[in-house]
Amino acid sequence: MSIDAITFLPPLAMPAAPDVTGAAKAPGGEFASWFGTQLADVNSQLVTADQGIQQLAAGDASNLHQIMINLEQAKLSMQLVMQVRNHLLDGYRELMQMQM
Hints:
InterPro entries: FliE (IPR001624). Helix 1 runs antiparallel to helix 2. The protein contains 2 helices and no strands. It has 100 residues and is mainly α. The longest helix is centred in the last third of the chain and has 34 residues. The chain is elongated and about 60 Å long. It is 64% helix and 0% strand.
């Protein structure tokens, strides 16, 4: 595999952090703020892991162990966010099924 084979991959840019300042005034805004911060952290970990993979594919990786650690951290962080999301959706569905 040559470097030309992976040049079609565009570099990932970190998007702006979600605006959660207005949510702090609403009830439960602390959770929204925390969740927004966690999403931004997970995104930065995913970008770091992706950059490590691109370096590895290009042959420029100097520390394979650190790349693997970054990948595992990003994976675990993503799994945590998905589990929080799943539990929130389950709670919402339960509330919607309640009879008044």
